[in-house]
Amino acid sequence: MPVTDAQVRKLMEEMSKHNKIGLASMRAGMDRKTGRKYLREGKLPSQIQHPRRWRTRKDPFEKDWSQIAEMLKDAPELEAKALFEWLQEQRPDRYEPGQLRTLQRRIKQWRAKEGPDKEVFFAQEHRPAEAMQTDFTWCTELGITISGQPFKHMLCHPVLPYSNWQWATVCRSESFAALKRGVQQAVMRLGRVPRFHQTDNTTAATYKPQEGKRCFNDDYQRLMDHFGMTPRTIAVGKSNQNGDGESLNGALKRKLKQHLLLRGSNDFDTVQQYECWVQQILEKSNQKCCNKVAQELKAMRPLMASRLPEYTQEQIRVSSQSTVRIKHNTYSVPSRLIGEKVTVHIYDDRIQIFYGGTLQLTVERLLGKFGHKIDYRHIIWSLVRKPGAFQRYKYRQELFPGLIFRRAYDALCERFGNGYRADCQYLRILHLAAAVSEQEVETALELLLNEKASFDADQVKALVQPDKPKVPEMVPFEADLNEYDELLQRCSEVMP
Length: 496
Fold this sequence. Notes:
Elements: H1 5-18, H2 21-28, H3 32-41, H4 45-48, H5 65-74, H6 80-90, H7 100-114, E1 131-138, E2 145-146, E3 149-150, E4 154-160, E5 165-166, E6 169-171, H8 176-190, E7 192-193, E8 196-199, E9 206-207, E10 215-216, H9 218-227, E11 230-233, H10 243-263, E12 267-268, H11 271-287, H12 290-299, E13 301-302, E14 312-317, E15 323-326, E16 329-332, E17 341-346, E18 350-355, E19 358-364, E20 372-373, H13 376-383, H14 403-416, H15 420-435, H16 438-450, H17 457-464, H18 482-494
Parallel strand pairs: 1-8, 2-12, 8-11, 16-20
Antiparallel strand pairs: 1-4, 2-3, 4-5, 4-6, 7-13, 9-10, 14-17, 15-16, 17-18, 18-19
Helix pairs in contact: 1-2, 2-3, 13-15, 14-15, 14-16, 15-16, 16-17
């Protein structure tokens, strides 16, 4: 193991104390002869050693290097592994798998000496109040749970690059509703607005036309106009142009991880409680850069715009299947709304459906496209009258609210056979769950399944049907009018 400069300095220090080479060498962690050598030279290892300019072994690629260099000049993007595999095919008797690392080092040196110029990144000077950068970041690695259930989510993370002021809101996807909520909360928190608002090429803010670069969505452009900010994006594939937001994403998640360890639990009662916890941490963090934030606020324009609703609104007609299609996903609604136009409020995490100004339904919003969320309670009243439709219903799997219902249907098929009779029995059970209580029906089914006895809908109904209350026998009330006569007589005796 080579001797370091620190060891030689330690050797010199020990020698100045007691002038004993053996003891000084031992305390410096080197041999006595080595210690004597450095005392004689009077120099540090870095001053004695010279860079090695010779090879310790023969270059295995010497014969083919000219050809390799020509190939790299013609196609600089060629990788060492691909070239090595090609060399092995051309000359299988000359090269072995263990020589790949040698070729990688040779090509690395060639690129540094003779390769093409690389892209240079230029550090930019941030100006106060010029721009707000907003980015989305996944936080699944934090292991957050809501009431014990894993919570897959993102943070919408606006930052001011000059002062590193930052804010965050919890969201489930990189949607326009999430971007709108995050940006609005940030500017409302500041009370002022910068000149520009910058994002990457997220579909929440931009779209790609048939030709040319990405353009801003109409909804996003209206949001920017409302708050008086000019939108701008980074170049496609140039995430470094949003570098401040990207770096603060990582710093924020590390900070949250540390606070979770101090908290001692990753579980929160509600999403709102979790979001408040995140924002409290950011408030404390923002206080550390209050001087620069004050400079930015002074240079910003006052916020004159009012708060916008955190949802987008659409008018949709309910189909004959008792469903509505919202953002490429299908949701069931009460069948009484078939054929009617409903007003839909689309939030980042939920969908609210109104008819005539009255809320009819709130449902969790689906992520992605081509999903469906069918509630059997919305359609079971029609399905029991048309049981033949159950067998090939498009969303048939949604009509099994849980594993117990699926097992119950399989048991009915074993008793009545796969077909119409088993379907009728199951639909009657499902109708009972909608009319009485899904939990009570599930408990009754579990009891019957555990007994391993065949059953039908009537047996389930008998277990679930509540007992009719008995009307108590009441004795008719008979008033005694003599008591009133006595009362009137006493009153007349008292009064003069």
